[in-house]
Design goal:
The complex is a heterodimer of chains A (264) and B (377).
Chain A lengths: L5 E12 L2 E12 L3 E6 L5 H8 L7 E6 L2 E2 L5 H8 L2 E4 L11 H12 L4 H14 L4 H4 L8 H12 L6 E5 L7 H18 L2 E5 L3 H6 L3 E6 L2 E6 L10 H8 L1 H17 L1
Parallel strand pairs in A: 3-8, 3-9, 6-7, 7-8
Antiparallel strand pairs in A: 1-2, 1-4, 4-5, 9-10
Helix pairs in contact in A: 3-4, 3-6, 4-6
Chain B lengths: L5 E7 L2 E10 L4 H18 L2 E11 L1 H16 L4 E4 L3 H11 L14 H18 L1 H19 L6 H13 L2 H23 L6 H41 L2 H7 L4 H40 L3 H11 L2 H27 L5 H32 L3
Helix pairs in contact in B: 1-2, 2-3, 5-10, 5-12, 6-10, 7-8, 7-10, 8-10, 8-11, 8-12, 8-13, 10-12, 12-13
Classes of the chains: A alpha/beta (264), B alpha/beta (377).
C-alpha cells in the first residue's frame, strides 16, 4: 500500500455482556485500500468487534474512529453522513424480504440520494450486473434467491452508494467451494475497480490466502497476530499457529505462492 | 471532495469540447445528471466532441455510468464521443461500466382494456382457487383424524391440552367481559325503544332468544377467529418460513397430525364451552340492566325468561358452535401453510385468515338459520 492512511482506528476497545468481557483492550488499524481479514475461533468475538465498529453494539471503553470520525464525539448528522460512506454485508444477507432484489439495492439510494427514478434503475441494475446477477434476478424476491445469490444481492446493496469501506461478515460461509471462490474473486475485482477498503470477518482459509492483503487474528479478546497471511504460521500464539500451520494452511500457502508468481 | 460536478461546453481551436470538473460521485449524482443533460443538448448540435475529464477529482460508479450513458446515447445518434484526460485509477471503472446494462430491459407490462379484463378474469379465478386450500385442509384433517382413530396412541394429547389452555381457558375472561357488555347493551336498547310501545316485558324474550340463538355463538366465534385463528396462522406461517414443517415431513411425521389436528380439535372443544359461558354472561348482563335500568327484579326476569325460551333455542346456538370452530380452524391452518418466505406474506395471510374465517362464520350462520327454520327448530 503506497499510502498508509488508516481509515479505521480502534484503540483500547473493551466490549462485554454482563459478566463476560468479549473484547479486552483491543487496538487495530485498517488502512485505506486494503483487504483486512479478521480471523478467530468460534466465539472469539469477531462479529462482536465488527458490530461494535459499525455501531450496533455499545462499547465499555476505548475509542473507535472510522474515516476520521470519532463515534463518541460526532454529532448525529456526522454519524449519518459517515454511515453513507460504508456498506455492510451481513452474514445472512439481511435482505428486506418484502422488496425485490433490485428494490433492495435501490433502498439506500432512495434514502440518501436525490436522483431520477431512471438513473436509480440503471445504477441498481449496473450494481447487480457487477456482482454477477442478471436483470431477471433483480425482479425476484429474497425468498426466491439461492444462498449465493442472496450474498451477491447483499453485496450489491452494500455497494449501492459507492462506499469507501465495506464490512463483510463471513461472506463465503454457507457457499460451496466454487461459489466461494467466485465470491472471493468478485470481492478482489470490485475492491480494485472501486478502490474499496474491505474489512472481512472470515473463517475461510482460502479467502485469507487468496484475497486478503493483511490478516488480524483475534484471541483472548485481543489481536494476537497481525500481518500478511504468510507470516501467520510463524506466530508465537498457539491458536494462530495451529490455525495457519495445519495441512490445509500449508497447501494453501503454496497455492497462494503460485498465484502470486503467475500474477508476477 | 465536495466540489459540485459540472460539464461545460467550450470551443477550443475550432473544436467543440466538453470540460468536466468536480466530484462525479453518488452524493452529487442528482446535480451531475442535470448538468450532463444540459451539456448533451449543446453537444448534440456540435456533432463529434471530446470530453475533457482532467478536472474530475473523484469518480465512482454513478459518475462512470452517467458518462457511459451520455456516450451511449450519442453513439446511438451516430455521433462520436472521445474521453480524454481521465485519471489512470478511474479508467478501470469506466471500462467495467462499459460492459454493463447492455441487455434490453424486459418488456414492461402493457396496460389497457384487454389487460384490465384479463386482470379481472385472473382475479375471479383467484377467488375460486382460494377455496381449494380449505377443501384440501378439510380433507387432510379428515384423513389425519381417521388415522388417529385407528391408532389412538399417535394422538398428541399433550399438545391438544396445551392448545385448549390457550384458546379456551385464557380466552375466557375476555369472552365473558365482551358478551356481558353486549348483553347489557341489547337489554338497554331494547327497554329504551320498546318502552314507546309499552312492550317492555317482551325485551326479556328478545334478549333471551337473540343471545341464545345468534349473538352468543356469533360473538364468541368472531372473537375466537380474531384471537386464536390469527395466532394459529402466524404460528404455522412462521414454522413454514423457517422450514420447520418441511423438517417434520422429512422425518416421516405428518404435520397435519402433529400440528393441525390438535389445534383444530382444541377449537372444536373450546368454542361450544365458550359459547355457553358467553351466553350466560350476556343473559346475566341483560338481567342486570333490567334490574338497575328498568327496575325489573331478578325474580321477575328469570320467570319471564323461563316462559320465553325453551331448550330448543339453547340447542340451536350450541349446535352451531363446533361447526364454526371447525371452519375457523380449517381457514386459519390453511392460510398458515400458504405463507411464503417473506415477512410481508406472513402478515398478509394472517389478515386474510381473520377476514375469511369471520366471513365464513357469518355465511355458515345464515345457512344454519335456513336449515333450522326448515326443520322447525
Amino acid at each position: 500500500m503506497a499510502s498508509r492512511e488508516p481509515v479505521i482506528q480502534v484503540r483500547d476497545l473493551v466490549v462485554g455482556f454482563g459478566e463476560t468481557t468479549v473484547i479486552d483492550h483491543l487496538s487495530l488499524d485498517v488502512y485505506r485500500g486494503e483487504i483486512l481479514g479478521l480471523v478467530g475461533g468460534s466465539g472469539a468475538g469477531k462479529s462482536v468487534l465488527m458490530r461494535t465498529i459499525i455501531g450496533l453494539l455499545p462499547k465499555r471503553e476505548g475509542t473507535i474512529e472510522v474515516l476520521g470520525v470519532d463515534q463518541d464525539k460526532a454529532s448525529e448528522a456526522e454519524l449519518r453522513a459517515m454511515e453513507r460512506r460504508w456498506g455492510i454485508l451481513f452474514q445472512q444477507g439481511a435482505l428486506f424480504s418484502s422488496l425485490t432484489a433490485l428494490q433492495n439495492v435501490q433502498f439506500p439510494m432512495r434514502e440518501y440520494l436525490h436522483i431520477s427514478e431512471e438513473l436509480m434503475d440503471e445504477v441498481a441494475n449496473a450494481k447487480l450486473e457487477m456482482v454477477g446477477l442478471t436483470r431477471a434476478d433483480g425482479a425476484k424476491l429474497p425468498a426466491e434467491l439461492s444462498g449465493g445469490m442472496t450474498k451477491r444481492v447483499g453485496l450489491a446493496r452494500a455497494l449501492a452508494l459507492d462506499p469507501e469501506i465495506v464490512f463483510l461478515d463471513e461472506p463465503t460461509s454457507g457457499l460451496d467451494p466454487i461459489a466461494a471462490a467466485e465470491f472471493d474473486a468478485l470481492i478482489r475485482t470490485l475492491q480494485r475497480t472501486l478502490g474499496l477498503t474491505v474489512f472481512m470477518v472470515t473463517h475461510d482459509l482460502e479467502s485469507l490466502y487468496l484475497v486478503c492483503d493483511r490478516v488480524a487474528a483475534l484471541a483472548d479478546g485481543k489481536v494476537v497476530a497481525e500481518g500478511p497471511v504468510t507470516s501467520m504460521a510463524l506466530s508465537d500464539h498457539p491458536w494462530v499457529r495451529s490455525y495457519f500451520g495445519g495441512e490445509r494452511g500449508k497447501g494453501l500457502a503454496q497455492i497462494a505462492q503460485a498465484h502470486a508468481e503467475i500474477r508476477g | 471532495m465536495s466540489a459540485t460536478p459540472s460539464l461545460y461546453a467550450n470551443v477550443h481551436d475550432g473544436r467543440f469540447e466538453l470540460l468536466a470538473s468536480g466530484s462525479w460521485t453518488a452524493v452529487h449524482a442528482g446535480e451531475l445528471e442535470a448538468a450532463i443533460g444540459r451539456a448533451a443538448g449543446e453537444a448534440a448540435r456540435a456533432g463529434d466532441v471530446s470530453i475533457d475529464m482532467r478536472g474530475v477529482a473523484a469518480f465512482d460508479t454513478y459518475g462512470a455510468w452517467l458518462l457511459e450513458r451520455l456516450i451511449r446515447k450519442r453513439s446511438g445518434d451516430g455521433q462520436q464521443t472521445g474521453v480524454v484526460g481521465l485519471r489512470e485509477e478511474f479508467q478501470g471503472l469506466l471500462q467495467d461500466v462499459h460492459a454493463i446494462n447492455r441487455n434490453e430491459a424486459p418488456e414492461a407490462k402493457r396496460h389497457g382494456l384487454i389487460s384490465a379484463l384479463g386482470e379481472f378474469e385472473r382475479g375471479l379465478t383467484e377467488v375460486g382457487r382460494g377455496f381449494l386450500p380449505f377443501l384440501d385442509m378439510l380433507g387432510a384433517i379428515g384423513l389425519a383424524a381417521t388415522r388417529v382413530i385407528r391408532r389412538p396412541r399417535t394422538f398428541r394429547f399433550t399438545s391438544m391440552v396445551h392448545q385448549l389452555d390457550r384458546v379456551g381457558w385464557q380466552a375466557t375472561p375476555i369472552v365473558l367481559l365482551i358478551t356481558f357488555l353486549i348483553g347489557c347493551i341489547i337489554a338497554q336498547q331494547g327497554f329504551f325503544h320498546f318502552r314507546r310501545f309499552g312492550a317492555e316485558n317482551y325485551v326479556v324474550d328478545m334478549v333471551g332468544i337473540l343471545i341464545l340463538r345468534e349473538i352468543g355463538v356469533l360473538l364468541v366465534t368472531i372473537m375466537v377467529a380474531g384471537r386464536s385463528g390469527s395466532s394459529y396462522t402466524a404460528e404455522l406461517g412462521s414454522m413454514k418460513m423457517r422450514e420447520e414443517i418441511d423438517a417434520l415431513r422429512t422425518m416421516g411425521v405428518d404435520p397435519v397430525e402433529v400440528l393441525i389436528l390438535p389445534r383444530v380439535l382444541a377449537l372444536i372443544i373450546a368454542v361450544p364451552i365458550l359459547t355457553f359461558l358467553g351466553s350466560m354472561a350476556a343473559l346475566y348482563g341483560g338481567g342486570l340492566v333490567a334490574w338497575l335500568y328498568e327496575g325489573m327484579s331478578p325474580q321477575i326476569f328469570v320467570a319471564r325468561l323461563h316462559e320465553a325460551i325453551t331448550v330448543t333455542h339453547f340447542k340451536v346456538g350450541i349446535i352451531k358452535a363446533p361447526f364454526m370452530a371447525l371452519v375457523i380452524g380449517v381457514v386459519a391452518c390453511a392460510e398458515g401453510l400458504q405463507v411464503k418466505g417473506s415477512a410481508e406474506s406472513l402478515g398478509l395471510q394472517t389478515t386474510t385468515s381473520v377476514v375469511k374465517s369471520i366471513f365464513f362464520v357469518i355465511v355458515l350462520d345464515g345457512l344454519f338459520a335456513i336449515f333450522f327454520a326448515s326443520i322447525g327448530m
